[in-house]
Structures are given as structure tokens and as C-alpha cells.
Here is the input.
Amino acid sequence: MDEPAVSGPGAGHGAVLNSPETRWLACAILITAMGNGLYLAGAVLFLTRSVGLTATEVGAGLTIAGLLGLGAGPVAGHLADRIGAREVYLITLTAEGLATGALALVHGFTAFVVIAVAVGIAEQGSRAARGALIARVGGRRRAHLRGYLRSVTNIGVAVGVGGAGLAILHDTHAAYLILILADAASFLLTALLIARIPRQPPLPKPADDNAGRLDLPYLGVTAVYGVLSLHYAVLTVVLPLWIVTHTSAPAWLVSPLLLTNTLLVVFLQVRAGRRVDSIADGAAITRRAAILLASGCLLFTMTAAAPPLLAGLLLTLTVVVYTMGEIGQAAGEFELSFALAPDHAQGRYQGIFGMGTGICVAAAPALLSLLCIDWGRVGWILFGAILLAAGLAVEPMARWAQSPARSPAPPGPNVR
Here is the structure.
């Protein structure tokens, strides 16, 4: 929650979508994102209002699925490196579609957990395989392509959420069932589009490569970005709670603020990625992003004591500043996650990176609810300091990852 000269998501996109493969990939990501939007907006309501599960059961099941699914990323990534990213992506997309469709058969908690775990494993595997495929078809512009796809993803999710509103409006079992099946169908349709991309033969593995060896420098970079990824829960989880419990601003302000975040990402993510073409650039933009994120945390503290109108204005400013930090952090993450990984092992490394950030994203709602909601201003200040420290740690971590002593050592420019 990346290069054209103008800011629109489609502006100058020819520089990024410079081949049929990248265009098919962009179309596929758009469809998947629309399905995800349907799921995000309506799955919980389907499970509680139609299936009859309690909110606690749904939350517990999703948490179990998320945690158990994390290990699938490195495994799928390793397979993508060995047998082909497109082939593994097709398998995981098909598995996601079938597992999501199976949610329509759920009638109790146990079945829900089993199917949710299957969805979680397929989802994490898809992310790793997709990262490896982006690395292959994007070539030297792979980080830029990933930033462009992030803009496309936001558009698709917004469309999907809007479509889910129709099911929510009808509030019937049939309407929710159609929503779930449409999400499942989106994965299968995506697989058909991905199949149009020519096979990308695996790159030869160097003789000195050891697939079982832990790459500590890369793990260090992963850990730092994992800490930074905690910020994604602020706007989706903490913001609504903060407005209702700690400010005088109206609760309806949540929707336009989230829309502001989405639009800024859609229109500015590509421009931010255009300025990131090296590891040094990635570290620098991450450092600036961390400063913006920390500044956003301080601005949040100022909204608590403000009267309604001023609180609304301050919250708007806060979301804009915070979103600019989010955009910069994503651009830096895309560059370093690809550039610091050996070309022949992009799948494995993307899986490791995704698992590291996934752990922090899973922990973020509970952690930030404690820090920012329960502890209030002190918690915001502490969280801002954590983000700032992580942002400042990226450059030395990148230097370590580029040191001659590191093995394997991917090619790339040195950090200035």
C-alpha cells in the first residue's frame, strides 16, 4: 500500500510497457487487483452474514492462514528460479482461484480455516512467482515496472471495492456468493493472460551458488524494510480508530482520506520510481520517505487537540504527507529488493523478502493499535522514531549487501 515524465498512471507508460510481455502482465495484474478489491470489501461480510461465523472466528482464521502461508513464498520462488517463473505463477494462480471458489462451500469454522490456509499458501506463492516474472520481463526496468504495476493495482482494487458495494447493498447470500465466485474467476482469467507470456527459461546457476545458504546482508535489508512496512496498517487500521476515539473530526472523513491516499499512489508512484535507477537512489529515497513517515506520525499527534474543522484539515495534510512517504518507501523497496538479489535467484530472494515484510504486516494491526490508539501521542512519537531509524539504516545495510565479502554478490552500482 514504479518513470514517465508526467504523473498519470498511463502517461509515458510506453517506457515501462515496452514489450507485449509487460503489457499482458499489466492487464493480468489489473484483473487480479479487481478481484482482490471484491474480496477485501465483501469477504468478511460473506463469512459473517451468510456463513454465520463470528467476527472473532474470521479474524482468527485469517491470522492463522496468513502466518501459515508465509513459508510458501521462498519455496515457490525457488521453484520459479528452477523451472520458470511463468509456470509457477500459473500454478499458484490456478490454486488461488480454486481455493477462493471453495469458500463458497464453507459452512463452519474448521472448513473455513482449512480453505483460508490454502488461499494463504497460494497467495504467498503467487507473490514470489510474480516477483520473479516481473524481474525477467522487466529487465533493467524491473523496479520501474513494479512501481507501475502498483499504480495499476490501486486502480483495480478501487474498482473492485466499488463493485463489491453492489453485493453489500443487496446484502443477500446470493449476492455475496457471486462476489466470492467473481474473485475466484479473476484468478483463472489472470492465468489465461499470463499464459500469453512466452516461457522465460531459468537462468543458469553459478557453480559457487548455494541455494541453502542464508544471505545475511539481504536478510538485513529485508528486516529493515519489514519494519518500514508496518506503516501500511496506519491508514487502513489505525486511521479510522484514531478519528473516532481521539479526534473531534467526523467519522465520515475516513472514506475521502483513504480515497486521497489511493489517488496519490495511482498518479505519483510511477513518477517516484522514475527517479530511482540504482541502489544508491533506492537508499536515498527510502531515507527521505522515512522522514516523511515520521513527520506524518507527529502530525497525527496534533490532530487530537484540534477543533473539528482544524482536525479535518490537519488529518488531510497528515494523509498527504504520510502517503508521499509511502510512495517513496515503495519505490526504494522495489529497487533494492531486485538489485541486491542475484539475477538467477530472483524468485527465491523475492520470496524471502515477501516473507520478511509479510511477518511485519501481519503483526502491524495489533502492534499499532497498542502504540497509536492505546498509548496515544507517546505511541505515535515512538512509532515515528522506529520508522525514522529503519529508514536511516537502509543505506548501511545496502553497503553491507554490496561488500566484496558477501557471497553471492549481485552486480550493481555502489551506494554513494
User: Anything to note?
Assistant: Residues 208 and 253 are 56 Å apart (CA to CA).
